[in-house]
Amino acid sequence: MAMSITVIKADGSEGSKITLPESVFGIEPNEVVVHSYVVNYLANQRQGNAATKTRGEVNGGGAKPWRQKGTGRARAGTIRSPLWRGGGTVFGPQPRCYYNRMPKKQKRLALLSVFSDKAQRDRVKILENLEISDSKTKNMVALMNTLELSGRKVLFLDEGVNPNPYVASRNIPGIKISRACLANTYDVLHADYVVITMSGLKEIEEVFA
Fold this sequence. Notes:
Distance between the termini: 15 Å
Strand content: 15-25%
Number of strands: 6
CATH topology of the largest domain: Ribosomal Protein L4, Chain: A
CATH architecture of the largest domain: 3-Layer(aba) Sandwich
CATH superfamily of the largest domain: Ribosomal protein L4/L1
Mean pLDDT: 92
Largest sheet: 6 strands, mixed
Radius of gyration: 27 Å
Structural class: alpha/beta
Number of helices: 7
Low-confidence stretches: none
Helix content: 25-40%
Number of domains: 2
């Protein structure tokens, strides 16, 4: 169903009311697809470069430790046997690729699901614009206090690259600023609140609706 929300101005005062696009913020969230996306996303972040050496790759061990018979000990052919300390590893991890492709329609459904879930739980705020005078941290802190989001994990979605807020927020934990057209399910899900500028909202509607 259509959901109306009040636009917040930079000084914290309330602006006009707008209606969020139902195709983005008004669908029934699909938890199964969201879970699949998160599992897929985290798997794709893995480097997959863990490696262990087999007995053939461990340095040394060319000579037989002792003669085959007559010592009273178990026969041994190399000190690099997996049974010996410092020897090779049996079935250890080897470099591999964890990348797995997810269909575009499922990615889009997952993103719309988390957008809708945030909106239905009043975790979406619409900001008139994300403009601050300079790139000082105190200006971003002031904006967070104005939005009453201090200490929260917040994802800001704007239309383009805005250097001042980006630089000002680097020292504040929990804040991420991203282009609206590059929003992904994991970032939206991870944030406590999603703050979208008016221009960013227009871009989201154009790209994802």
